[in-house]
């Protein structure tokens, strides 16, 4: 089974949802339904995120690490 993420224009949302209801739950399931939020708006909505970014900008370049040094 595949999972896709779509951004649906409000103008056709109702018709699109009606179309999806023609499929059985074995064929298609709506996993999540939400309003679109830009990445910027999402990050700004996280408590303390803006302050954290502002604080990080003030860090001296000597404290930085390269991508190779990150322990992912």
Structural class: mainly alpha
Question: Termini separation (Å)?
Answer: 29 Å
Number of strands: 0
Shape: elongated
- Strand content bin: under 5%
SSE pattern, N- to C-terminal = HHH
Query: Rounded to an integer, what's the Rg over CA atoms?
Result: 20 Å
Q: What count of domains describes the coordinates? A: 1
- Let me know the largest β-sheet: none
- Average of per-residue pLDDT values: 92
Helix proportion range: 25-40%
Provide an overview of this structure:
The protein has 72 residues and is mostly helical. It has one domain. The protein is 38% helix and 0% strand. The chain contains three helices and no strands. It has helices at residues 10-20, 39-45, 49-57.
Topology overview:
Blueprint: H1 10-20, H2 39-45, H3 49-57
What keyword list fits this structure?
single chain; about 70 residues; mainly alpha; about 0% strand; elongated
Question: Summary?
Answer:
With 72 residues, the chain is mainly alpha-helical. It has helices at 10-20, 39-45, 49-57.
């Amino acid at each position: 089974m595949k999972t896709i993420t779509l951004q649906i224009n409000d103008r056709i949302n109702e018709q699109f949802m009606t179309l999806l209801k023609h499929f059985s739950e074995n064929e298609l399931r709506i996993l999540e339904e939400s309003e679109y939020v830009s990445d910027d708006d999402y990050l700004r909505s996280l408590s303390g995120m803006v302050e954290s970014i502002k604080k990080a900008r003030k860090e001296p370049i000597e404290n930085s690490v390269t991508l190779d040094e990150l322990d992912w």
